[in-house]
Design goal:
This protein is α/β, with parallel strands linked by helices. It has ten helices and ten strands. The strands form two sheets. The protein has a six-stranded mixed sheet with strand order 6-7-8-3-9-10, sandwiched between helices. Strands 2-1-4-5 form a four-stranded antiparallel sheet, covered by helices on one side. Helix 4 crosses helix 6. Keywords: ATP-binding, Nucleotide-binding, Phosphate transport, Transport. It holds the Pfam family ABC_tran. This is Phosphate ABC transporter ATP-binding protein PstB. GO terms for molecular function: ATP binding.
């Protein structure tokens, strides 16, 4: 399919002798929001981390199968993992700004990747990224202030600005709103809808309503298996598997 941005085929993950993911097959389309739902411990976040090789840093973790980005295997030993993570950015569950200024948080990636030639270009990247993250108007007069001094919702938007400053193609979000209040959550959800125009987004969420609001397609995980993937409305109103129905209606989870 021409509109497939990333693809996983028979992805298995082992932690030592324990198999956490049992052969995951899924396509992630260009400029879509794909929500990963399922009970705690079912493999959603483990799979998300496979997409930009974040599992590489976990001792005893082995990943097999293939994950491709524009048809190229991201696990090819010849590829630079730093470049993979620049193309496939990550926003974590808990906001984790660096102990630096707001400005330095956003320009950190462009600096280490050599994406800008001078201060003027760097200023442009910082402003553009903060605007895209819906944060510019709130922080433009205090860019030298520490990022850790922002509210939780602002910190998460700062982390999103930091992720998009290196011009990724895919953004992975691991429960980005679970530590936020309802107002901050609404800001992030509006932002996801905006970002979809320029990026492919994969979001792990425990919040069914959030998955229904922000995603076009949803994948349901259960006990390390991908049970089914489909249009979000279909998954929520007419799923093809009884396990999906049981989870969505609250019979387990």
């Amino acid at each position: 399919m021409a509109d497939v941005k990333m693809s996983a085929r028979q992805v298995r993950v082992h932690y030592g002798d324990n198999e956490a993911l049992h052969g995951i097959d899924v396509d992630i389309r260009r400029n879509e929001v794909l929500a990963l739902i399922g009970p705690s411990g079912c493999g959603k976040s483990t799979f998300l981390r496979c997409l930009n090789r974040m599992n590489d840093s976990i001792e005893g973790c082995r990943v097999s199968g293939s994950v491709t980005l524009d048809g190229v295997d991201v696990y090819d030993p010849a590829l630079d993992v730093v470049q993979i993570r620049a193309r496939v950015g990550m926003v974590f569950q808990k906001p984790n700004p660096f102990p630096k200024s707001i400005y330095d948080n956003v320009c950190y990636g462009p600096r280490i990747h050599g994406l800008t030639r001078n201060r003027t270009e760097l200023d442009e990247v910082v402003e553009t990224s903060l605007r895209r993250a819906g944060l510019w108007e709130e922080v433009k007069d205090r860019l030298a202030a520490p990022g850790t001094g922002l509210s939780g919702g602002q910190q998460q938007r700062l982390c999103i600005a930091r992720a998009i400053a290196v011009s990724p193609e895919v953004i992975l979000m691991d429960e980005p709103c679970s530590a936020l209040d309802p107002i901050a959550t609404a800001h992030i959800e509006e932002l996801i809808d905006e970002l979809r125009r320029n990026y492919t987004i994969v979001i792990v969420t425990h919040n069914m309503q959030q998955a229904a609001r922000v995603s076009r397609r949803t994948a349901f995980f259960h006990l390390g298996n991908l049970v089914e993937t489909g249009d979000t409305e279909t998954i929520f109103t007419n799923p093809g598997d009884q396990r999906t129905q049981d989870y969505i209606t609250g019979r387990f989870g």
